[in-house]
Structure formats: C-alpha cells, structure tokens
Amino acid sequence: MRASFNSLFDLSWARVFAVFLKELVQMRRDRPTFAIMIMMPVMQLVLFGYAINTDPRHMPAVVEMREDGPLTRAFLASLAQSTYVDIVAVTHRAEDGEAMIRSGQATFLISIPEGFERRLVRGERPQILIAADASDPVAAGGAIAAIQQVAMQAFAPEFQGSLAFLATAPAPYEIIVHRRYNPAGVTSFNIVPALLGVILTMTMVMITSIALTRETERGTMENLLATPVRPLEVMIGKTTPYVFVGAIQVAIVLIVATLLFHIPFTGSFLAFLAAVTLFILANLMLGYLISTVARTQMQAMQMTFFVFLPSILLSGFMFPFRAMPMWAQVIGETLPITHFLRIVREIVLKGAGFADVAGDLWPLSVILLALASLALLRFRRTLD
Amino acid sequence: MTDIVIDVRGLTKRFGDRTVVDHFDLKVPRGAIYGFLGPNGSGKTTTIRMVCGLLKPESGEGEVLGFDVLNDSLKIKERVGYMTQKFSLYEDLSIRENLEFISRLYGLDRRAERVDAALSDLGLAERQTQLAGKLSGGWKQRLALAACMIHEPELLLLDEPTAGVDPKARRDFWDAIRRYSAQGVTTLVSTHYMDEAVQCDSIAYIAYGKKLIDSPTAEIPKQIGLYGWRIAGRPLMRAQEMLEALPGVDLVARFGAEIHVCGKDSVALERAVRAVKGAEPHVEIAPIEPGFEEIFIYLMSGAMDNFQ
C-alpha cells in the first residue's frame, strides 16, 4: 500500500515541465486550433450577447386601416414609435395583410375596422383585431402583451376635453387577439419541426467535416491523390452515403413528431422533400468544406461547433429571428438552417406549398452551390 | 513510345525558405531498375512525389512516360504505380476491398479477375478477407505493391518499400521487382539497404536536395575513388577509436574480426593507418580495394555531403 501510495506522488517536476513545454510548443504549432480557442469565446460573447433577446422587439407588423381619422392616425403613430412592432406596411385591403402574414413578411396583422371612431365615440366598444403568427409562441407572446399597452398609451392623450368621457376603465375599445397557426401556443409545435433542422445540421456537418481530414491524418490521402481520382469524384463519393443517413433521420423525426407530439403536417409533402434534400446537401457541403480546411479531426470538430452554435442561436430556432439586430439577421440568412426552419414551419404548420416557400428555397440552393464550389476550390490536388 | 521513361531537368522544391530539392536532373531508361540513395531528409521522397505529380515543383521541367510533368499529372498518375513510404491503404478495409477500391479508381475492366490474379501473384489469396490493418509489416508491403501494380503501370515509383521488413520478405519483394523489370516495367526505388542498392542497374545519390552521383552501379566504386586499408589483430576496439579521430579517415567499418578503413585522400589515409600501427604495434595492416559494401556504407552514412 505504502509503496504504491508513494509512487503515486513520486513525480518529477522536471518531467512535468518537459511535458508542459512540449504541449506549449505543439499548441503554438497548431495555429488554427489555437485561433479557434481564442476566437470562439469572443465571437460567442459578441454574437449572442447582442443577438439573444427573450423580450422580442421590432417584430414586423402590417396594419390594415379601414378608416382614416385623427384617433386611428394617433394610434398608428404611437404604434410606429413603440419598439415592439415595426410597421412594415399599411394597407386597406384585407388580402394584402393576410398574404404578408402567411409568407412570414409580417408577424402581426393589426386591423382597424371601418367606423371605428364613430363607434368609439358612441361608446359601442369597437374591436381592434390583432392576428399574430403564433407558430413561434415566444416571438408572438411578448408583442401581443405590448400592443395592449401601446394602444392604451396611444389613445390616452386623445381622450381629453370633449372626449374625456372615453377615459374609462375598462377601455372604450376591445382588442381581440387571434393566434394563427398554433392557436394553443404549443411550444413543441414550433420546436419539433425546427429540431429536425438542428439534428440534421449537427450530424451532417460533423460527419463530413472529417471526410478528408481523416484521410490526411491516416496517411491514406497520399495514396488517394496518387490515383487519377478527381476532386469532384471524391466530394460526391464521400458525401452521398450521408444523404441516406440524413433521409433516415428525417423519417425518424417525422414519425416521432406525429406519434409523440401530434404535430399536424398540413402542407405540401413534395415541397418538404425538396427542401429537406437541399438542406441535407447544403449541410454535407458545409462539412466537406470544413474537412478541406481542418488538418486534424480535432480541428474539424471545433470548426463544426463553430458553425453549430450560430445555427442554433441566430437561425430563429431558439430566439425570434425578426427580433435580432440587423447584422445578426444578415449572418442568419447565410446559414442553411435559417431558410430550412422557415420552410419547415411554413409547410408543417401553415400548410404552405411550393409557391409559398420559394423565397427560401432559392437561397438554400444558392448556399448549397456556393459551399460546393468553395469546397472544390479548397481541395488540394497535391500534398503541398 | 520513348525509351527514356523519366526525363526531368532542374526540378526544384522549396518548403518555406528551405530548398529541399535543388535543380535535380534524372534520366531513367525503359525497363531499368534505378536506385535512389541518400541519407534521411535528403529529398528522395520529395523528388519521387514531384515525379508522380503529388507535389508541384517551384521550377524545372521534364517528361514522365512522355507526358509533361507539370501539366499532365493526371495522365502520369494513370500510368504510374506509386508505393508510399508509409502504408497508405485503408486499414479498416480488407485486403480484397483495398484492391477493388484501387482498381475501381483506375477504371479497370475485368476487375474481379485482376484482383484474383494480384492476390494469387503475391500469395495473398487465402487472406483476402483479412483487414489490412491486421497485417504484419511484410504483408502490408506485399499488399501495397499489389495495389500499385494492379493497373499494370509502366513505371513503378517505390519509396523505401522494404523499410522495416524481414530479409525473406525483402528478397521476395525484389524477386517481384525483377520480374516486372523483365516485362519492361521501369522502377525507381529509394532504399537504405546496400544489398538492395547493388541490385539496381543504376544509382542516383542525393544529399541535401542535390544529386551528387548518377551512374551505372558497377562504375560507382571507380567514380568515388575510395582507398582502403584492412586492420586486424588486437586491440581492435582501441585502433578503431583512434582511427575515427584521425584526419583522412572517412569511413571505419567493422567486418567480423577486422576493420576496413577508407578515405578519399590516399596519403592522409595511409598516414593515419601507420600512426595507429605505431601506437598499437600488435595490429596488422594491409591495403585493400574497397568493395561495394564499403562504398555503400560510405554513401549511406552521409559522408558524401561535402562531395562537391
């Protein structure tokens, strides 16, 4: 006992120092990993510290004005000043507002009915109708509460003088909120289809990120390059098997979503298949691009996470996309998952078809092509 | 069909500011077994990689199998069998799977037939389902050779193919190389073994990226111009230690119960040997003609670094 106890603590500081120095030298030689280790926390703090906002503001809203009077104009002005909603359009036609909320251009549709002022003055408690895209309950919730407040503040200065009798409690008008697409505000309806995107991103990127790196690490790259095989052949040959792995994952998620979460699948299944195929391919190319850069599997893993975190935090998966600052939205637009999330929510929850999701299908295709081209350009045909 | 299979001129490769291969010329005729010698880090592997298009030279030009070495590397790759220094087939594939993978990459017809033939040629037929990673060093070499021969290349580039392989396996390996040579296959092989070097038709010796010798193997002793003395008797160990410290002595090698001392300067060498005889009167000394063994020990030891 005693001997083994001693041997446990019988360490040479000289050897410890030797190992320490060696690690230090190796770390210095491994520049990319070192850079990632330094950059990762910085980027995360900067990106997510500003981007994440559980009190969503600046949600796009379309206002359907059936009446144009001093009271409604005051309400509109006050709404425009509030930071909760950004009025992206004012329309007089009901169809315009409906179309914008379906396509995701607006999260809220605020309707002021005809004869609002007249009925207000008569004390008939007219209604202001708010239709909210509640497919993301977090995004909708905060703003719905805020709009009530905004309305109160908007009308308060107007209810003076001859209109002072309207400054009553309860308010002389009624705000009716319709939660569209997810009326019960079930978070899982929003999260589960989106999780498909997260799972595919995680696994597809990670698995292909070591595709070439492993060859280089094991020394088999030299033999591969000595054969007449072409870069595109390597790329297609190495990524295709994972298209099938992705397909299996999609099937599993769909089955679980239906059986456990009772997610309604209301839209076009064909459009869904097209989107999911593009998305899997884009992720595979992203991983493959990483593997043309990373020199060790360790580096490949770290780069994968470098992609993975913004995919969760800046894509609209975890936090409302529209509530993020502009620059964060720009980064989000370059991520395949951002477009996939919109498509999958629109198809699964809003019953969208090809035409409705076209606006996100083509960016996904552009991203896929860009990633594949970059990866091909990065592929080193020689050992240089 | 040209009769010079490798004809490269002025190949130069730098890694950073270090020149690894410096203005390297080489002409290898069809069917030859060309030995590539030099100490570790002298640029042998880099040269071979440039010849088969795995590295882009900074400058230089030439043709391999009649194709431009700079621009036609895909065509060269199709006709060259390159065996890497380190085993570079897939350890998690079986022997047969590896060969099939390679033959698919070369787009070969009659694949199963060729793989069968290669397996039986190299005596691997019974072990074809074994994982390549489980093979011993010698068997891995055989598999690697089979893999780089499967597309019937006209030129074999072998980078230290027998390093760490037992003598029997090495002999088998060289028998195979000579068989291919008889069929008209050209071979450029780098090696550290002198018994392999003497089997080559010609030898190129490279040190610090510069080619120092390039001639038919038989003419090498004459070209180097080494002088030698034989020392026997006792105390041999002391004599050896003294010799190693004296000027004019380029090589001291133990051969059983005697020492062979060699040097390029015959006068300085004789002076050194006689000084030892003076200090240790019991040893016997006699001049000898250095043979291949002394020459190659001399070459391998890197003593040629300051040749020119």
Q: What does this entry look like structurally?
A:
The complex is a heterodimer of chains A (384) and B (308). With 384 residues, chain A is α/β, with parallel strands linked by helices. Chain A contains 16 helices and five strands. Chain A has two domains: 59-180, 3-Layer(aba) Sandwich (abc type-2 transporter like fold); 187-378, no CATH class. In chain A, strands 2-1-3-4-5 form a five-stranded mixed sheet, sandwiched between helices. The N and C termini of chain A lie far apart (55 Å). In chain B, 35% of the residues lie in helices and 28% in strands. Chain B has helices at residues 44-51, 73-79, 95-105, 111-121, 137-149, 167-182, 194-197, 220-224, 236-245, 266-279, 292-300, and strands spanning 4-15, 18-29, 33-37, 59-64, 67-68, 80-83, 155-159, 186-190, 202-207, 210-216, 227-232, 251-255, 258-263, 284-288. Chain A binds chain B through residues 218-230, 382-384, and chain B through 49, 52-56, 74, 77-78, 80, 82, 84, 86-91, 102, 105-107, 147.
